[in-house]
Specification:
Length: 444
């Protein structure tokens, strides 16, 4: 039987929900027009005044916001709240330039906690659970977002953060959490470490896991479910819009991520023409915040590729569902004129029983041609065929490499070299997995 955190909101009739969104959209535009010079200028250029925005459909009159806008107005140029009104500040790592800084008023923190509590309950959590948080804490929004949400849902939180895998395992065994959250690659690492220690992950107390912060495939989901004997649920969020909790799969259906539409207005647009796309079509996700006070955003272009489904879910929730992320415009590789998403490579790799889920995509350049290589570890069982010693020239590995290369050619449309690796030789993740190494930048 499905359980709800805020049933009156989660099962609201869609006509009432759209009316609520329209009211909150009008309030948001009023706020940014009078408090954020950047938005006032853009709206004035379009001839749009706050009074022109009354319904959800009016969102198309509004300008888009991009991540570069946050960086160019670093640190507080897009804030709609005074510094003394802030309760918390988060920021990105800034590895690609200036970081993006986001702030929260106390009301923002309350709304975020409620969104996260709703998400955890949607994913199978229950008041009274013990909940293990293996997302990183600090400026990254993941750890604190799940932490506050679990507490708001009435759970006891184990704030482990990422890393120190043996300690994670001890705490899981000793404190017996019912739920866990983290990046899928890191929690997979926990399972494999347990197996290497002679332990069975399926014998833990875990029943559900919430995973996100990096792209992951259905094949990765099945691995996590098989290793732990749990339901593995996808969560979606981004720091610029709120943090985790913008959308999540339900325990009952695992069929699309329920977006918290009372807090966010979501669109899908054609990333080239910027025109809105109808339900069911795949394009770039765009979010407008409806309740944020510190840093409201109008039509924020996420770079994430997905589609939307407005039909009510069998769990009883009525909010629109977004598909799992099919890729990111930022992560998309253009190799010999072909668009390649890392998620497509993962789907192919994990469909081969002889391969492990530890892989890396390397893009290099030979002369004027791009070269795509997938480095992937074999399963330990294959070492037995080679007398216990890894031999890349062994006939079984040569044939396996050819077979996987053919599969990748069919999947991504580019000739791909497959470099099979000995088990345990590729780097393990203690946070977000680094899946792509693009060496072409060395050539300019």
């Amino acid at each position: 039987m499905p359980m709800f955190f805020q049933p009156e909101l989660e099962t609201m009739d869609r006509s009432r929900l759209r009316a609520l969104q329209g009211e909150r959209l009008a309030e948001t535009v009023e706020r940014v027009y009078h408090r954020v010079p950047f938005y006032r200028r853009l709206l004035d250029e379009r001839g749009v005044r706050p009074g022109d925005i009354r319904r959800v459909e009016d969102v198309v009159k509004l300008p888009f916001t991009k991540k570069t806008d946050l960086r160019e107005h670093y640190p507080f140029g897009l804030f709609a709240a005074d510094r003394k009104e802030l309760s918390r500040i988060h920021a990105s790592s800034g590895t690609k330039g200036k970081p993006t800084v986001v702030g929260y008023t106390q009301n923002d923190i309350t709304n975020w906690s409620e969104c996260m509590a709703r998400a955890i309950i949607t994913a199978g959590g229950r008041p009274g659970d013990t909940f293990h948080v293996a997302f990183g804490y600090g400026l990254f929004t993941g750890g604190l977002g799940l932490h506050y949400g679990a507490e708001r849902a009435g759970m006891a939180v184990i704030p482990v953060s990422g890393g120190n895998t043996p300690r994670q395992i001890s705490l899981i065994e000793d404190l017996q959490p019912r739920g866990i959250c983290g990046t899928p690659s890191y929690v997979l690492n926990i399972a494999e470490t347990m197996i290497a220690m002679g332990k069975d992950p399926r014998k833990t107390s875990l029943e559900y896991g919430i995973f996100g912060a990096e792209p992951w495939s259905e094949e990765m989901r099945q691995m996590l479910q098989d290793y732990f004997g749990i339901k593995a649920l996808d969560i979606y969020g981004l720091s610029e819009v709120m943090g985790p909790g913008v959308g999540i799969e339900c325990y009952e259906a695992q069929d699309g991520l329920h977006v918290a539409e009372d807090h966010f207005l979501v669109e899908v647009i054609d990333p080239i023409t910027h025109e809105p796309l109808p339900y069911g079509e795949t394009g770039e996700l765009v979010f407008t915040t409806l309740t944020k006070e510190a840093i409201p955003l109008l039509r924020y272009r996420t770079g994430d590729i997905a589609s939307l489904n407005p039909e009510a879910c069998r769990c009883g929730r009525t909010h629109v569902r977004m598909s799992r992320i099919k890729g990111r415009l930022d992560d998309m590789l253009i190799v010999r004129g072909v668009n390649v998403f890392p998620s497509e490579v993962e789907t192919a790799v994990l469909s081969v029983d002889e391969l492990s889920p530890h892989y890396r995509i390397v893009v290099d350049r030979e002369g004027t041609l791009d070269e795509l290589t997938v480095e992937v570890e074999i399963q330990p069982s294959l070492l037995q065929d080679m007398g216990g010693k890894f031999d890349p020239d062994h006939e079984s590995l040569v044939n396996l490499s050819r077979r996987v290369s053919h599969l990748l050619k069919q999947t991504v449309g580019v000739t791909t070299r497959v470099d099979l690796k000995e088990p345990g030789t590729l780097p393990r993740s203690e946070g977000k997995a680094v899946r792509v190494v693009d060496r072409r930048k060395l050539y300019g």
